[in-house]
């Protein structure tokens, strides 16, 4: 087996296994999503991320993670960088983040966040938000029984100077706001 493919499988295997049968019952939905976010960071780069010593994830208003995100991220490194978790209440604060997790807010509010974040090199992550990637989000978790556990709009990522490894892209459902792409 190709070493690259083997590394991809190892990196994501634990998260995928958690969805099967009894193993899923041992972990909450947000413990699993926290593990995905941790692994996303290993396959995403930008100038802002490369220049920073710490990866900052902002939780916009609602924090469905409880302590799951802290248990998964704090004290651990992704690409040699420790994590910091911040609560965000205004769109202006997102410029301090590398990742922005958005959950359960009105559509007009997340749409304004996405519009504001377009030039900020912020990786926006939606929590099962309908049409999130089509509206300009970069990553969106999909419902539990979807074929792909997350979707990515790589076109938006590239517009924001964010580079997502093909190793991650092949695991996702790719969304495009360009109607000429399939």
Question: What does this protein look like?
Answer:
This protein has one domain: Rossmann fold (3-Layer(aba) Sandwich), CATH 3.40.50. The model is unreliable at 17-23 (pLDDT under 50). The protein contains eight helices and ten strands. A hairpin with an 8-residue loop joins strand 7 and strand 8. The chain has helices at 3-17, 21-25, 29-42, 47-51, 68-73, 107-117, 154-159, 166-169, and strands at residues 44-46, 54-60, 77-78, 81-88, 99-102, 123-127, 139-141, 150-152, 162-164, 173-174. An eight-stranded mixed beta sheet has the order 3-4-2-5-6-7-8-10, sandwiched between helices. The protein has 182 residues and is an alpha/beta fold.
Give a quick rundown of the structure.
The chain has helices at residues 3-17, 21-25, 29-42, 47-51, 68-73, 107-117, 154-159, 166-169; strands at residues 44-46, 54-60, 77-78, 81-88, 99-102, 123-127, 139-141, 150-152, 162-164, 173-174. The chain is an alpha/beta fold and 182 residues long. It has a single domain (28-174), classed as Rossmann fold (3-Layer(aba) Sandwich).
